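Quality-control log, excerpt.
Job 1 of 2 completed; input and output follow.
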Amino acid sequence: MKITIASRYWSQNCPVFYVESVKGKIGDWGYTTDYHKAAALTPYWQRRFAADCRCVGVEARFTELDR
């Protein structure tokens, strides 16, 4: 089964952060540095993540994996 995970760079000195949990009514995205723990995102959540990344001037990255 193919899934899509999302990631972003936080800063030059930090590793890649993967989305572990989606943004809630209050709070922000949950992140992990372990891609094995990354959440599968639907197209809806991919668009939301990309939009939030654009707002803070970073690039959202999406990777399709077999799980």
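Job 2 of 2 completed; input and output follow.
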Amino acid sequence: MLKKLPIKKEYLLIAGTLLLLLISYRLAFKNTIEAWQSHRQLQTQLDQSSDLNYQPGYLERKNNNLDQLIALYKADTTAFRSNIISTIAGIAERENVKLTDVPVQDVSFQTGQFIIEKLDFEGNYFSLLKLANDLQSTNGIGTIREETWRLKKSQSNPDNGGGLALDLYLEIIK
């Protein structure tokens, strides 16, 4: 059958080779070339968008959260003995709690970055608990580092409880 065709065998070989290349391109090489071009295009877009690790929104939120945490600890240490204690006394009075003692600043409670102030309160359990919650949520007076709850004995009647005492240690950034 091929012998009867008036076409030269060289032309048939070239046509068959081209047909074979066209079929192999459609079945195998086309998808590979498209994937390679897509990869190259996405890689150039990635290079143009600079560093994706830098996320200004995330860094801004993180900075705001850290500022809020620092604001809880910060207080004006020079005015602590006057303004802050009067604020704390106002909160204590509002909660029906008695501020019994503000000891003199102890040098051992001061570090390079923090000052720790001790305050003693007396009252009933629920009032002292509300006071501790209010002091924790109030900005600008420091934050509670430690709470010590103890039972006070009455001087006149030792058998009867004298109430509950709360010793608070407030931590303040210098």
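Post-run check on job 2. The helical segments are 9-48, 56-73, 80-94, 125-137.
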